[in-house]
Amino acid sequence: MAGSERVSRGRIGSHDRSEYRMAASEQSILHTVQNSMFEFPALPGRWDILSFPGLRAHATPGIDHPFGNMVGVSTLTEANADAAIAQVQDFFGKRGQVVGWWLNASSTPIDLVTRLEAAGFSKMVEQAGLVLTDLRQEIACNPAVTVRRATERDRADVVRLYAEAYPMPEALASVYCEVVPLVDCGNHFLAYLDGVEGPVAVSSMFSPRGSSVMVMQGAATLEAHRGRGTYTALMAARLAEARAMGKRAAVLQGDRKTSAPICVKLGFREVCSVDFYAWSPTPGAKLDVHG
Q: Count H helices, E strands: the chain?
């Protein structure tokens, strides 16, 4: 979480519109949307990169959560898909862990959803892959919200907010806090409300190495302070930082029931669907990506 603090209030935007040039191709945008959850490097024993044929994957030993134990970006075939699914289930089943499967429009084979459901996977979240290609766009924010980039001193707040507001297990929030800054341009951001002690919301961003696309990754606000514009302010601050870093587009995966509608109002457009499936080795277990 190293880096200087940046404070933002009110309207975020830029006036040097004549100098702006959009450089990110549709291909690079789509690739970033579909691969973003697998861009984090290994933290041996905490965030492990796995090798399954035709899949990208990571695991968090000792943490039972589908975001920490995930496979996706499938390039499987009709001939090997069922065997790959069984291999994934065998690996995580022996650990007694839930596993998530990241599924996008380019995942193969074409009947992968049917095969996953036949193997016991259930759809957890329907997401929209979204992109904003004009980072000059101004966004009006609640002036009572202040956003700044988190530093090492803020580690406890970043972990607490992801654990309480997202929510996710505290152990996973701790790992996530550490892996994001290991990626290019990786930073966490904190939002504050006037009259409220301490930060009330958190979000993150990073960029794949060598890419002109920034990933807006994760955002969570404490339940008591939702509906006050913290999500919009966090997005505006991150977009301003992305443009300052020379990025030409911003992408995210937004839950169709929550964040996606907000982002569309801010100017994002949908480029693909990204659905999230999960499987538990415990028969009848309740699957939930939150909590």
A: 7, 11
What residues contact 63, with CB distance under 8 A and at least 6 apart? 69, 97, 169, 171, 172, 175
> Which amino acid would we find at residue 37?
M
Phi-psi region of 181 (alpha: psi -120 to 50; beta: other; left: phi over 0): alpha
Tell me the two tokens of residue 128: 């929209």
Encode pLDDT of 164-192 as tens digits: 999 999 999 999 999 999 999 999 999 99
Encoded amino acid at 126, one letter:
E
Q: For the chain, list the domains and their CATH numbers.
A: 17-27+131-271 (3.40.630.30), 29-128 (no CATH)
Cα separations (Å) of 12 from 7, 64, 213? 11, 39, 19
Cα distance between the two ends of the chain? 24
Q: What is the full DSSP assignment across 212-273?
A: SEEEEEEEEE-GGGTTSSHHHHHHHHHHHHHHHTT--EEEEEEETTTHHHHHHHTT-EEEEE
Backbone angles phi, psi at 246, to 5 degrees: 90, 10
Per-residue pLDDT band at 114 (split at 50, 70, 90): very high
Phi, psi of 55 (to 5 degrees): -140, 155
Task: Please enumerate in sequence order all residues whose Cβ is within 8 A of that of 101, keeping only pairs 6 or more positions apart, or say none.
Answer: 70, 71, 72, 88, 116, 121, 276, 277, 278, 279
3-state secondary structure at position 33: helix
pTM above 0.85, yes or no: yes
Q: Quote the longest CA-to-CA distance of the chain.
A: 60
Alpha carbon distance 45, 42 (integer Å): 9
Burial tier of 266 (Cβ tally within 10 Å: 0-12, 13-18, 19+):
middle
Does a cis peptide bond (omega within 30 degrees of 0) precede residue 167?
A: yes
